[in-house]
Fold Branched-chain amino acid transport system ATP-binding protein.
Amino acid sequence: MSMVPTLLSVEGLTKSYGGVHAVRGVSFELRAGEILALIGPNGAGKSTCFDMLNGQNIPDSGRIRVLGAETTGKKPRVIWRMGVGRTFQIAATFPTMTVRENVQVALVSHGGQLFNLWASTARHARDEAGRLLDLVGMGAYAERPCGELAYGDVKRLELAIALANQPKLLLMDEPTAGMAPRERVELMRLTARIAREQSIGVLFTEHDMDVVFEHADRILVLNRGSLIAEGSPEEVRGNAQVRAIYLGEGLVYDARHREGASA
Ligand SMILES: Nc1ncnc2c1ncn2[C@@H]1O[C@H](COP(=O)(O)OP(=O)(O)OP(=O)(O)O)[C@@H](O)[C@H]1O
């Protein structure tokens, strides 16, 4: 029996908009150090699910617990303080501040203080910011204005900012959107390494099936608001219902492509 603690527990999560059942009775668990992908065709309910987990949307019914503590319906900031970090599809950084200052702001804000560059807390956060930047391979860029960074580097900085909150669970909404294929692989490898080393659970949504099948330990498949499959990449790839849903959307092609590539 696994001794790895359950980090996130979701039970019967449900949300409707008028007559649209966006999310219907979704239940799943996520363990510490696990990389879990949430996939599904357009309109499947991924964003609605995600937004209920981070507090931006309130479920009609169901329960969400993080390390046993109920987060259902709590405000985003409260959930963030409970150890749920997130990265955004559109990078959220301060372009005129340096890379290091962006991480310092996050560190000081995690400590519940207002950011003031000259205060002693900010000075203490300076070294810690350097450590986090080294961790994501951005140490050499520390003193550059954030607005000068290439897009892939902004995404690595975002990861450092999310880690400043010492998250137990990291929610990543299409983390590799807008990135070149090589950068996608690098960002996900980096995320997976840090998550495993620090026992952080990661839940991510993603349209790029190569990223999903290469990096997820487990995959959840949503369709029309319901969870229709859950399992390892191999199990999900072999699932007839999933193949039918994704026919023409890349998954079937991707599986053949990979089988061909590994032959
Ligand atoms: N604020 C809203 N008001 C009304 N309907 C909504 C709202 N938000 C989402 N929906 C509907 O709920 C369903 C699920 O949408 P959601 O955005 O969660 O799907 P998704 O899987 O994230 O899609 P995509 O991959 O296109 O981002 C869709 O039918 C959508 O039109």
In short: Residues 252-263 have pLDDT under 50 and may be disordered. The radius of gyration is 19 Å.
